[in-house]
Amino acid sequence: MTNPPDRSARTGRPGAPTGAVPGAVLKRLAGHRLLWPSLVLLALLLGNLAFTHDFFDIRVQDGHLYGSLIDILQFGAPLILVALGMTMVIATRGIDLSVGSTVAIAGALACEHIAGSADPGSAGTVLGAVAVALGVAVVLGLCNGLLVARLGVQPIVATLILMVAGRGVAQLITDGQIITVRSEGYHLIGGGYWLTFPFAVLLAGAVVALTAFVTRRSALGLLIESVGGNPAAGRLAGIRAAGLLTLVYVFCALCAAVAGLMISSNVQSADGNNAGLWIELDAILAVVIGGTALTGGRFSLGGTVLGALIIQTLSTTVYTLGVPPQTTLVFKAFVVVVVCLVQSPVFRAKMSRRRGRPHTRSTGTADAVGRQQEVRA
Amino acid sequence: MSTGFATKASRLTRPRPGAGSRGASTRIPLLVTAVLLVAMFTAGSLRYDGFFSTQVVLNLLIDNAFLLVVAVGATFVILTGGIDLSVGSVVALSTMITASLVEHHGWSLGAVIPLVLTIGAAGGALMGWIIHTFEIQPFIVTLAGMFLARGLCYTISTESITIDDPATVSIAQTRLYGSGGLFVSVSVVIALVVLLLAFVVLHHTRFGRGVYALGGNEASARLMGLPVGPTKIAVYAVSGLCSALGGVLMTFYMLSGYALHAMGMELDAIAATVIGGTLLTGGSGFVLGTALGVLVLGMIQTVINFQGTLSSWWTRIVIGGLLLVFIVLQRLMTGRRAETD
């Protein structure tokens, strides 16, 4: 995508003064790549407020936080994690379609382990279940990574295999049943509270912070971007793409597994058939909305988190409005198309040619996104 | 060990499709598929009573006629190096539109089918147009199409719509008898006609050669003066049309329209195409191979049904395993020519 200085020159906010010193700050703000996702999220939240007046209310009850916003964070936590792993994969110009299956497998393994143990509530059992799920996720990630990095299979195809087979494996583990578990320790991961916050939110936040720290405070992020940006140049610069590729697929599988643990722990059961169904598409959508282009070479963790929250808010909105929840798909379709069009260089070029003045064009598209959201909301 | 072989193979896989000297290497996956199909049938015949009969083979066609049509459409797209994830949803949408118009609005089938086919083709063309004009990856555009079509299903109805319309039921239950009491359904005939048409179009028309050229190398195709844009739009339109027709056939098969019909069919269609020997990077493959691929998928299902003790999820696992084998086979055949793109 375009780099920030380039965008700041073209992305004017309505009424932003240009030239003056405060104007420069505004301009930087306007050119920030998180601006649009933030505005969309804000518009969605405000739209909700208009319908439900206590939407922003957060109250503390029994030492736990409650409220619609907390719900969005808690239910959005698995999606944030999956999207986080997906961001890394997409930064290498890859894609991982198998995360939904990994979510199902991780949940199934953990529940199977807990249900089969003598003492389902003990910390040892829960930790064992988590270890089993994460261990298998590493293996699954390695399979994807080796196919992509060593055999050179297109990522979409390589991960398609696990996407198809993984669902079957998850059902094989649960024997086609829904395994229900009663374990306080396990319930903590996805549905419990810690320090008044939902544990899932804290966990997702910690993983995001850690990832941001590791990728941005070391050269790792840059190396990953180089694999997606220009593999040939990266190879000439001596970057071992194969190792990095394997790493991102393993990381993605791990994130998906943690998300799978959260989802199954929240409902205290494992459903090999429906757990994490279509989460891969939501995750890709979150990444794209967050400004990480599918062509790789650049990623934005903050954007991904915002993207995931937007999708979760969209789902919540649809529930609040009482529209049949399945029609969320229609909204998502429009969001995908609009976001991709806005990101497409060809579309930008066409629009700028048509409208002439870059300023009006950019605000126009920003408005269009907002309007789209409001019309749908 | 295979560097020499790989480079040789990569030279062999690229020549103009339709030429006689295509090279044996692209045919190997096809050959493997054919052997696999025969082996599975033989093993099934030896193991289970009543497996070795022509009707079992015909039932394969009856049960998979709609998948065959959809997979043929997917083959067009995959040959150009694209991908269409919307096919399953478009099938579901077609069953919904057909069922709802026939049952709730009293339309005749003769009016509904052309409408459904037009919607499918127009939707596909629209996606192709977006892909071509704005240079967005086919994957993400057809993903949006998948969301949209599936979502539109729910706006029609969240419940399953059962069809009682006598005309539709009679067509669906018509059995075309051959010698010896063997029969096929009307859908099988339609599917085979579609397959034949696709074969002729791909191998004996200018458009078909354009499809292969586009998948082989888009830049070269453009430089050669081929109509890249119209071809691209057309393949997605073909895919949409085939999905819609597949949806109509599925409506006959299920005698209902339901938003949850054809879940995951896009994967089955892609799997059938790959198992049938079409390269996912485009430019090489056979539509008749796709038919073999569909039969292999159907055969897996049949064997699992005959076994009785195996649960349905084994189908998915076996299909996944087969996909793995064939994709690795493709890579070994073509070498590491194409970078991951």
From TrEMBL, chain A:
It is a multi-pass membrane protein. It is found in: Cell membrane. The chain crosses the membrane at residues 34-52, 72-90, 97-115, 127-149, 156-173, 193-214, 244-263, 275-294, 301-323, 329-347. Residues 352-377 are annotated as: Disordered. Keywords: Cell membrane, Membrane, Transmembrane, Transmembrane helix. The keyword Phosphoprotein does not apply. It holds the Pfam family BPD_transp_2. Its main location: membrane. The keyword Transmembrane helix applies. This is ABC transporter permease.
From TrEMBL, chain B:
It comes from the Bacteria. Its main location: membrane. It is found in: Cell membrane. The chain crosses the membrane at residues 28-48, 60-79, 109-130, 136-156, 176-202, 233-255, 267-300, 312-329. It is a multi-pass membrane protein. Pfam families: BPD_transp_2. Residues 1-23 are annotated as: Disordered. Keywords: Cell membrane, Membrane, Transmembrane, Transmembrane helix. NCBIfam families: PRK11618.1. This is Galactofuranose ABC transporter, permease protein YjfF. It comes from Streptomyces fragilis. The gene is yjfF.
